[in-house]
Amino acid sequence: MLQLDPPIPLTTPKGEGFAHILIDYGPETDPYWTVFITRTGEVWTYSNPEVRATRNITLGRTQPDSPPQDPRSTPADRSGPPKAAVPGGQ
């Protein structure tokens, strides 16, 4: 386990954040990044394939690929409460 100083900016399935801890269990597993999500303050741990380095113009990384989306946060979850059915189909 390594505390990152300074923290590393990463893009995760839950949005951008800063990785504060890197956990490496050895050669048979992916490294794990513990990320503080900027927008919500949540703390999540992601395996290496789930995160991406954020945009960095100086290094020429202008449009990095997005990580896979979090299946627990679907578009239906973000659209608000379900709409009630209106009689007559309107």
Describe the structure.
The chain is mostly beta strands and 90 residues long. The protein has a domain at 2-58. Helix content is 4%, strand content 37%. It has a 5-stranded antiparallel sheet, with no helix packed on it. A hairpin with an 8-residue loop joins β2 (15-23) and β3 (32-37). The model is unreliable at 74-86 (pLDDT under 50).
What's this, in brief?
Residues 55-64 have a biased composition (Polar residues). Residues 55-90 are annotated as: Disordered. By secondary structure, the protein is mainly beta.
Fold topology:
Layout: E1 2-12, E2 15-23, E3 32-37, E4 43-47, E5 52-53, H1 75-78
Antiparallel strand pairs: 1-2, 1-5, 2-3, 3-4
Radius of gyration: 18 Å
Strand order of the largest sheet: 4-3-2-1-5
Total E-strand runs: 5
Q: Characterize the overall form.
A: globular
Total DSSP helices: 1
Structural class: mainly beta
Q: What string, H for helix and E for strand, traces the elements in order?
A: EEEEEH
Given as residue ranges, the uncertain stretches (5+ residues, pLDDT < 50) are 74-86
How much of the sequence lies in strands comes to 35-45%
Considering DSSP H and I runs of 4 or more, what fraction of the residues is helical? under 10%
N→C terminal distance:
57 Å
**Please, what is the average pLDDT?**
82
Major sheet description: 5 strands, antiparallel
Biased composition (Polar residues): 55-64
Region (Disordered): 55-90
Keywords:
globular, single chain, 1 helix, 90 residues, 5 strands, 5-stranded antiparallel β-sheet, 4% helix, mainly beta
